[in-house]
Every structure is written in structure tokens, then in C-alpha cells.
């Protein structure tokens, strides 16, 4: 990888706990955006955005249609939409069928980002109870991107990281307490 142009983090059951631990340790002046795709219940509320914003000095916001990605910003995929990354580094929202019983689907966003950022993409898959993210990580690797997975031993629900490890040539396995430093040191 030459340099990271975007970091995507996908997670489901048990992943919020990890995110709340890693955010305070992140450099608020990162040169790339962080895009968070979490399985969440439909509905419009600012609780998650406010909770995450309280843990970091980075700008935190829910994605809006056609919004341009900016560095040092944490974007949250809105509930009930698949989040796609466009070639001009904007977001688009899609209400098509659920994938892996989820919308937003981690696979959909990882695959979309892989086609845009290729070898300059880093994706981190966290705790969760289904295999969403595994197919997406495979595509990320095919395009030369980097696949990171939470150490299943540190995951509240280990199914998601275990599925990725069983099916993808993962670059790095990270314990929860190693994630911030690793992200801060991405080229």
C-alpha cells in the first residue's frame, strides 16, 4: 500500500464497545476519512453520532447523499441504507434489498470502496454475529487493499472475525487495545 486514502470499519453485535475504546486514541488530524458501517436498527436519531463525537476530537457525522469525503472525519452509515462510495469520492445511499440480513451491509460498502480506492483502502472488520464483511474483504484483497480483523479472542461476538479469518487472507489481526495505534501509523 502506498498510502491510506480511506479506512472502513465494519461491525455488528459487540462492535460499538470496541469503537468507543479506539476513538479516544485516534489522531484527530488523520489524512484520511474513517467510514463506519454498523448494523443498526432503522430510525432517525442522533444518539450514535453524539456518543461517538463525545469520544474523539475528529468531526463525526452521519453520511448524507452525494457528500464529499473529507480527511479527519468519522462518517457513519445511516440506518436502512446501503452505503456506496462513488469514483469522485462522494457517498451514495441505496435502499435495495438487504444483504446478509442487513442494510447497511458491510459487504456492499467494502466492495464499493475497493473498486474506488484499490490498493489505498484499509478495511477493519470487528465483532459480529453473522458473516457480513467476509465477501467484502475478499474483494478488498483482490483490488490490492488491506484487510484487518479484530482478534476473535477480544470480540464480544467472535463469529464475524472468525468467518473472515477462515475465508480471507487477512493482513493483520488486531486486539482491541492495538487498533488506535495501528490506525494512527497507517502510511
UniProtKB/TrEMBL annotation:
This is protein-glutamate methylesterase. The keyword Hydrolase applies. Keywords: Chemotaxis, Hydrolase. PANTHER family: PROTEIN-GLUTAMATE METHYLESTERASE/PROTEIN-GLUTAMINE GLUTAMINASE, PROTEIN-GLUTAMATE METHYLESTERASE_PROTEIN-GLUTAMINE GLUTAMINASE 1. Coiled coil: none annotated. Its EC number is 3.1.1.61. Gene3D superfamilies: Methylesterase CheB, C-terminal domain. It catalyses: [protein]-L-glutamate 5-O-methyl ester + H2O = L-glutamyl-[protein] + methanol + H(+). It comes from Kaistella yananensis. Residues 1-183 form the CheB-type methylesterase domain. Transmembrane segments: none annotated. CDD domains: CheB.
Amino acid at each position: 500500500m502506498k498510502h491510506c486514502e480511506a479506512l472502513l470499519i465494519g461491525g455488528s453485535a459487540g462492535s460499538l464497545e470496541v469503537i468507543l475504546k479506539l476513538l479516544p486514541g485516534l489522531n484527530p488530524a488523520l489524512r484520511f476519512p474513517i467510514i463506519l458501517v454498523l448494523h443498526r436498527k432503522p430510525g432517525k436519531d442522533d444518539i450514535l453520532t453524539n456518543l461517538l463525537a463525545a469520544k474523539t476530537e475528529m468531526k463525526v457525522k452521519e453520511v448524507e447523499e452525494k457528500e464529499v469525503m473529507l480527511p479527519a472525519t468519522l462518517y457513519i452509515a445511516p440506518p436502512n441504507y446501503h452505503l456506496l462510495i462513488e469514483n469522485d469520492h462522494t457517498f451514495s445511499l441505496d435502499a435495495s434489498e438487504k444483504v446478509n440480513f442487513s442494510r447497511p451491509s458491510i459487504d456492499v460498502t467494502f466492495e464499493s470502496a475497493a473498486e474506488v480506492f484499490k490498493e489505498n483502502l484499509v478495511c477493519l472488520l470487528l465483532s459480529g454475529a453473522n458473516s457480513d464483511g467476509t465477501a467484502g474483504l475478499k474483494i478488498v484483497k483482490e483490488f490490492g487493499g488491506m484487510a484487518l480483523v479484530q482478534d476473535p479472542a477480544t470480540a464480544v461476538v467472535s463469529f464475524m472475525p472468525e468467518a473472515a479469518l477462515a475465508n480471507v487472507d487477512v493482513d493483520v489481526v488486531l486486539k482491541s487495545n492495538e487498533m488506535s495505534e495501528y490506525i494512527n501509523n497507517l502510511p
